[in-house]
Write a structure and sequence with these properties.
Number of strands: 14
CATH architecture of the largest domain: 3-Layer(aba) Sandwich
Largest sheet: 12 strands, mixed
CATH class of the largest domain: Alpha Beta
Shape: globular
Helix content: 25-40%
Order of helices and strands: EEHEHEHEHEEEHEHHEHEHEEHHHHHEH
Structural class: alpha/beta
Strand content: 15-25%
Distance between the termini: 30 Å
Radius of gyration: 21 Å
């Protein structure tokens, strides 16, 4: 799902440089490659202090998830990290390409605290397909999640007398030429399917009446498709509404640029970042792999991670809202209403034939000349 999803808008309190925790002369005992801004440096230091040997920790940030996947491919032959963060969208490919090895849930003390839908997300067969059969193994540790959301200019919509609340608002005539959408077939076709009452993971698009006509109508309202810089025209006022990933739409951007966020009422797409173990590290069996994952899943740490990184730990999903800090339980960006979450879904693996169908339709829509 999240080919170019990034967290470049978070501040200097987050881990922004490749650094060795523990001093320049400390050897590296544990190396992690991750998305820039996805782990607060203060919690990395806390993790180190909890380890008896005070290990040297190297957390190496990358600009986007595509870079991380390419690093995972490059490290399949040499110098692998102990853990790599990838988006759940990449998990099937990583399994098929034999880039990662499964984790043993019995080695993870917090595994049972992980909500069932996240356990199911990472339980796959050797072809990368979802599997609840005995051949299904655990291929990753979900770390954080977010939604596909609508960001909009408060000033522009105040003049119109309404604000976006659901996908159907993208089709309103007042938005013609004022929308930026992700350059992603699954996302755009998916939100259109959701508007029509179908699943994001609909396998046969030919069975959805009027889908192409709906996409063509939406296409007329779009100013640009971009998965990297979709917030820039919104900040500048060139667009009034942008569909993007919740982890990118930081509070800083909202406060400084008069931008609000809406999680569509009819449900939306969910994304998750997961820790995976490169297959070339299997001989080392570094105990810090399990220790770090368990650390991330501790309720107190999971709550802090959620508040500090702009994306929510899956552990929070399973906690009572009454037990959560006010800043978290009352933040609809980090924790949407339960009924919205129940109508939302991960972008799950589709067959090759289905993916080809999505791509054909996407190309057809993109070739339509906007009036």
């Amino acid at each position: 799902m999240s080919l170019n999803r990034r967290s470049f808008l978070w501040g200097t309190s987050l881990l922004a440089l490749a650094e060795l925790i523990g001093g320049c002369d400390t050897p590296t005992n544990f190396r992690v490659e991750l998305l820039n801004g996805s782990v607060p440096v203060q919690l990395v230091n806390r993790f180190r202090r909890q380890q008896p040997q005070r290990p040297g920790l190297s957390f190496v940030p990358k600009f986007n998830l595509e870079d991380l996947y390419q690093e995972l491919q490059a490290e399949a032959t040499s110098n692998p990290a102990d853990l790599v963060m990838i988006g759940d969208y990449w998990l099937s490919a990583a399994i098929r390409e034999e880039l990662i090895e499964p984790l043993n849930p019995e080695d993870l003390s917090q595994w049972q605290q992980l909500p069932e839908n996240w356990q199911n997300l990472v339980r796959r067969n050797p072809n990368g397909e979802l599997s609840n059969s005995p051949e299904g193994q655990i291929w990753g540790a979900p770390y954080r999640w977010g939604t596909t959301a609508i960001a909009y200019r408060v000033d522009r919509f105040e003049k119109l007398g309404w604000t976006p609340t659901d996908w159907q608002d993208l089709w309103r005539s007042e938005c013609q030429g004022r929308i930026s959408l992700l350059d992603q077939a699954r996302e755009v076709i998916g939100l259109t399917l959701k508007k029509l009452g179908y699943s994001y993971n609909t396998p046969d698009l030919d069975l959805v009446p009027d889908l192409k006509a709906e996409l063509e109508q939406l296409h007329q309202n779009v100013r640009l498709y971009d998965s990297n810089n979709y917030l820039k025209p919104l900040i500048l006022g060139d667009t009034w509404l942008a569909v993007g990933w919740s982890g990118d739409i930081s509070p800083q951007v909202q406060r400084q640029h008069n931008i609000a966020i809406a999680i569509p009422k009819s449900g939306t797409a969910l994304w998750s970042d997961v820790w995976v173990k490169p297959i070339a590290t299997s001989a080392t069996n570094n105990p810090l792999v399990q220790a770090w994952i368990d650390f991330c899943w501790q309720p107190e740490i999971a709550t802090q991670m959620s508040l500090l990184t702009g994306a929510t730990s899956p552990i929070v999903w399973g906690m009572s809202r009454a037990d959560l800090p006010k800043d978290l339980r009352e933040n609809p960006q980090l924790l949407p209403d339960t009924d919205i979450l129940e109508r939302s879904e991960f972008l799950l693996p589709l067959t090759v034939a289905s993916m080809q169908q999505y791509q054909r339709l996407w190309q057809q829509i993109r070739s339509v000349v906007r009036s």
